[in-house]
Structures are given as structure tokens and as C-alpha cells.
């Protein structure tokens, strides 16, 4: 019973993480609280990969819902043996959890690349990726952030939000990985009765 509850909790944890990913990704479109930068396409290109909205957001919500259904005892039986049904449920859960690892991994990679590349902002030379050749070292050089004059505080805005997305997708990845381990353990420890007939023991 404890293992059942644990597996169910892992799936439920994905829902708030996915909702927060959507919110954080949406906020990236409104630096300085204004919409004009999105409408004029003056945003870092990595916000257009929809990593937080689609992959660690909507897709993760769908996966979490399916995993929760699979964790419930109300899931219909797919074969005559109860242990066989549980095995098939675990196999489906493993596949879905691996998809979760892929989706959250994509979000993690895109958010990391966005953080390393730096903000697209207005400088004395015009709109440009002023930090793209610094391979992330600008993160430790706060004095260089002032070179971005518009949007206001865009460097801090992107650093904070991309860092949160990295943390959220990292947690999702960890939960999905733990889910894979738990279901594989259940399959390996629970399928023996399915294949061994009582008369042969």
C-alpha cells in the first residue's frame, strides 16, 4: 500500500511543476511587464521554443494525468490475471515516464541554452545578443548587465526565469526517472506469477 501511495504521489507532483513551467515561460514574453517586445519580436529566440509551455507544461500535464489514472485501482483489467493487468499497467507507465524524461530534458536543455546565450537587448550598437560570445561568463559579471538598456532589467529577468525553468524541468526529469525505476522494479518483482503456472512449481 505504501508503494502504491508513493507512486501516486510522484505522478501528482508533476502537475504543479507543469503549471509553474507554463506560468514562468509565459512571463518570459513580457520583460519589464510590457507586451511590445513580444509583438516586435525583440525577445531571446529561446523563448519561442515553448519549452515551458508545451513540453514541461502541457505535455507533462497530459502525461501526469495518464500516470495518475494508471496508478488508480479503477483502471480496467486488460487480461484475465490481475498480476498480468498490473504488469501491463507498469509497462505503459514506464513508456509514459520515459516520454516525461524526454520532454523535461528538452525543456532543461533549451532553458540552459537560453541562459548561457544571454538576453537579446538594445545596446548602443542596436538590438543584439551582447553576451553570446561569453559562454555564460556574463552571469558572474554584473557590471556588464547595464549595457542592456532596453527592456529594463531584462538580463535579471531572463536569468531568474530561465533558472526557475531549469529547476522545474530538472525536478520533473528526476520524478519521471524515479517513476521508471519504481515501475521497472514492480515489473521485475511482480511478473513471475504471470509466466509460471502453479502446476509447474
UniProtKB/TrEMBL annotation:
Its main location: membrane. The keyword Transmembrane helix applies. The chain crosses the membrane at residues 12-31, 46-70, 91-109, 159-178. InterPro entries: L6_membrane. One of its GO terms (cellular component) is membrane. It is found in: Membrane. It comes from the Eukaryota. Keywords: Membrane, Transmembrane, Transmembrane helix. It is a multi-pass membrane protein. The keyword Transmembrane helix applies. Belongs to the L6 tetraspanin family. This is Transmembrane 4 L6 family member 18. It comes from Eublepharis macularius (Leopard gecko).
